UniProtKB/TrEMBL annotation:
Belongs to the major facilitator superfamily. EmrB family. It comes from Mesorhizobium escarrei. Its main location: membrane. It comes from the Bacteria. This is Multidrug export protein EmrB.
């Protein structure tokens, strides 16, 4: 057993943290900020309503493929050098996205933006763990988690405001000042980490890229292609299964695989991957449901929707900042359980939504869910790496981000499919009762009962509204069940203070 190296205090830790978080928020915002600008891009780029979605798909697939290779790139070229290159490349291609003159150029620039942006989140988490002593990891993960989880919440609102006030191109131009400040701060103060050159397992990377890329493409394209009624989706599913299967066999049998399988022997990290997958499902799936619900059923404009959803982000930030300070006093596993309980409670409250309610129920459920997710995310991000050998840290943070993103994509796809299918089913069931033989119809609207077109049109609107509302409620109930199912996983986690100290700290020059 090797003797652990004492932690060496890093100068300008506060400035480094600010610079890292600026880069992180910039990248995380870009995953959602462009969504609301898509309708405005259609005319300028000569695209159609179907093809414009490739602006999102290209970014998601490129980022998913490049995320796992972050660890190898960091070891080969240096963490600091890779981080600075990622920020520069991300900002440059953001500017090119802002001046794109056709759909083809936009898709190309977004693809490259995803290639460079993939490393930013894993490296930000790695550096925050590196520059802080172990007793401050909870606070560091609280700051990091605030950027990761609040970014997607404010993204659509910020994107809508920029699009309405200026132009859709400002959705990308806004990255320039943020990127410059982040780059200068990191270039000046980010410590140099000793490199560890290792061979590149091209076959393993190719198989993992095939699996991840095909899966992300299937999840993103599924809704437009009508899922498994399309040959495209079946091909992508086959490629995803084949890629992951061959990659798994290769990792277990190869001498120097792309990802060392020993990383999965750490119980905390393996359980943390399952947890972060569930968090990805709940966080972004609920964020994908609420804006269209508020717009379609309640008639809220984009800015009002953002204001109503803002308390969710406030709740998340409050809980993260509080839990970062109390983690060394309270068992982190207890905090995770409390967070899961609050999240389940908020989803139960959301299952009671109705078109007749006011904003209060939306605000309170949002605050409770934000508090709950924050209580889960920070302890989880700390425990997952507490017992892991430091030499696996960069690979581990890349896998952590990848699994969270895959969970988000799967969650959004599932709730979107269920929303469409359940709306059709609910509409058919409710419409079956709209007939002249139903006394309730005579009591509610005699003109509709005798076939008045205007009255029937009004009834049809109510049926559509109720069908959609019931479908949203079913989705919220599903996410509540997923949250409750995650409870037993808490007992698989080990307390951080019992972690082995055998692994040496990362060497900071």
């Amino acid at each position: 057993m090797s003797t652990p190296k004492p932690f060496r205090e890093v100068p300008h830790r506060g400035l480094i943290t600010i610079a890292i978080m600026l880069a992180t928020v910039m990248q995380v915002l870009d995953t959602t900020i462009a969504n609301v600008a898509l309708p405005s891009m259609v005319g300028d780029l000569g695209a159609s309503a179907d093809t414009i979605n490739w602006v999102l798909t290209s970014y998601i697939v490129a980022a998913a493929i490049m995320t796992p290779v972050t660890g190898w790139l960091a070891d080969r070229f240096g963490r600091k050098e890779l981080f600075l290159t990622a920020v520069v490349g991300f900002v440059v291609f953001s500017m090119l996205c802002g001046v794109a003159w056709s759909l083809e150029t936009m898709v190309l620039f977004r693809l490259m933006q995803g290639v460079f942006g993939a490393a930013i989140v894993p490296l930000s988490q790695t550096f925050l763990l590196d520059i802080n002593p172990k007793e401050r990891h909870g606070q560091a993960m609280a700051i990091w988690g605030a950027g990761i989880m609040v970014g997607p919440i404010i993204g659509p609102t910020l994107g809508g405001w920029l699009t309405e006030s200026f132009n859709w191109r400002w959705v990308f131009f806004i990255n320039l000042p943020i990127g410059i400040i982040a780059f200068l701060g990191m270039a000046a103060y980010l410590p140099n980490i000793a490199r560890c050159v290792r061979g590149f397992d091209f076959f393993g990377f190719a198989m993992l890229s095939l699996g991840v890329g095909a899966l992300q493409l299937m999840l993103d394209r599924g809704g437009d292609a009508d899922w498994f009624s399309s040959a495209e989706i079946w091909i992508e599913l086959g490629l995803a299964i084949s890629g992951f299967w061959v990659f798994t066999i290769h990792v277990l049998s190869a001498e120097n695989p792309f990802i060392d399988p020993k990383i999965f022997l750490d119980r905390n990290f393996a359980t943390g991957l399952v947890f972060i997958f569930i968090i990805g499902v709940i966080l972004l799936a609920s964020l994908a449901l609420l804006p269209p619900m508020l717009s379609t059923i309640f008639g809220y404009p984009t800015i009002t929707t953002g204001v109503v959803m803002a308390p969710r982000g406030v709740g998340t930030m409050i809980s993260m900042l509080v839990v970062g300070r109390i983690m060394h006093r309270i068992d982190a596993r207890l905090l995770v359980m409390i967070g899961l309980g609050l999240t389940a409670q908020s989803l139960y409250t959301m299952s009671g939504f109705s078109p007749q309610m006011d904003n209060w129920l939306i605000l309170t459920s949002g605050v409770i869910q934000g508090l709950g997710l924050g209580l889960v995310f920070v302890p989880l991000s700390t425990i997952a790496f507490a017992t892991l050998d430091v030499r696996f840290r960069t690979d581990a943070t890349a896998l952590f981000s990848l699994v969270r993103n895959i969970g988000s994509s799967i969650g959004i796809s599932i709730v979107s499919v269920m929303l469409v299918r359940n709306t059709q089913i609910n509409h058919a069931e409710l419409s079956a009762h709209i007939n002249p033989f139903n006394p309730n119809l005579w009591a509610a609207s005699p003109p509709a009962a005798v076939g008045d077109p205007a009255a029937l049109s009004q009834i049809e609107g109510l049926v559509n509204q109720q069908s959609l509302m019931i479908s949203y409620i079913n989705d919220f109930k599903l996410m509540m069940v997923v949250t409750l199912v995650a409870f037993p996983l808490v007992f698989l986690l080990r307390k951080p203070q019992k972690a082995s100290a055998a692994a040496p700290a990362a060497h900071i020059d």
